[in-house]
Amino acid sequence: MSLVPAPDLAPGPDLSIAEAGAALRAGRLTAAGLLDAHLARIRSEQGAALHAVEVLLEETARAEAAAADAAFAEGRDLGPLHGIPVGVKALFDVAGLPTTGGSRVPAPPAAADSAVVARLRAGGAVVAATLATYEFATVGPDDTLAAPPARNPWNPAHVTGGSSSGSAAAVAGGLLRATIGTDTGGSIRSPAAFSGVVGLKPSHGRVSAAGLLPLSPSLDHAGPLAATVGDAALALDAVSEPGWRPAAGALGQGAEGLTIGYARAWLADDPMTDRSVLKALDDAASVLSLAGARIREVVPPEIERFKDAGATILAAEAMEGHRARIMAHGAAYGRAALKSLLGGLLLTAEDLALARRAAALLTAEMDETFAGIDALLTATTLAPAPKVSAFAGGRAVWTPMRTLPFNVTGHPALSLPCGFAGGLPIGAQLVARKGAEDMLCRIGHAFEMATDVALQRPPGFATA
Fold first, then answer.
1. Of these residues, 163, 164, 195, 415, which one is catalytic?
2. Tell me: the pLDDT tens digits for 312-351?
3. 89 is catalytic
4. 187, 195, 216, 218: which is the annotated catalytic residue?
5. pTM > 0.85
6. 114 an active-site residue?
7. Would you give the DSSP letter of residue 373?
8. Which class for 11: exposed (0-12), middle (13-18), buried (19 or more C-beta within 10 A)?
9. Catalytic residue at 216?
10. Are the CB atoms for 101 and 118 separated by under 8 Å?
């Protein structure tokens, strides 16, 4: 598969959030016109084939776009996403819609917006769609469900990654510049890596989980997927709770003088690592070095310890949260989600208590890893996206990732494109101290500016 460089910027969907915002504020573009351009992209043959959108919110989106234009005309600026169309994963409550979680299990209409949707709307964003997810943010894709899974724009024979599958596909396919997903074990960062976009899992607690259908509250995070680091930073700032440093505050400051710890052993010593991924990460370290950063190899806590603690917490909390729903509607669950959730029945309260104690120790050890470094570099996934056919019949397939540790510890983590293998994207992961999303975005933006990876578009999706 050949790689196609992005064309010159086209009006509308191909403008960055900052570029579109500048045009909106200068009167060169209207929110209504921008929404029309995105809706046309979503409804196009290529857009529809991605199966990224669960519900298109056209009526309310048009009203929100009109309100955004009226606010601009009155001289009111509501924030960085004012007038920008966005989408949210189908786990967030949207008033008047059932929060399906990508499932056939019956759900009543939400009485109110989730905190994330409320913040987006208060900031003038145009909430254009709810987006596909693996069922209840568990595992997938699952062809035993009614709706087809989202497809990877780089190659539809390969998965988009989960569970924020529609959120990633919508950005990678150019349908939306930014979406809001969730991440319990890697569900923002894995699809970002597999789909060649940016995924930002913030510090635990930075984005409110109110009105979010939970999977494992101790590990759940909400955050953006976006076309660029700058877009992701602006989207995160729009949905963050008060009191956090702006993620976009250090964009453009470069990597000069920073120290980045490279957790190379987490890749090189794992037999599941694709050699193309290791080469891409080595190259990424070299790019950051040439940009002025000091690269130092570090050895974080053993990955298996994170897997043991994180998997136990996730399974126990997920089963507890779904117990009543399974008792009432178990037959409506897809095969993959039900099998995954029922594994939690094997765990005891003592198992969960031990896992939580281990998580606390691992968090302290990871905090110590950041002594003397500004950020940590590692892979997001150890291989490119697997084929959809591997998941036929609702089979669960392990995709090796390096994401779960930072759900366990709550540190912010950013996945951004760093290369390709066989025409499929590879993601680098940057991790920072809690509350240091601005550092992640500073380094990620410096990497983008030093390479052309972020300029690549999936074949067939390079033009409007």
1. 163
2. 999 999 999 999 999 999 999 999 999 999 999 999 999 9
3. yes
4. 187
5. yes
6. no
7. -
8. middle
9. no
10. no
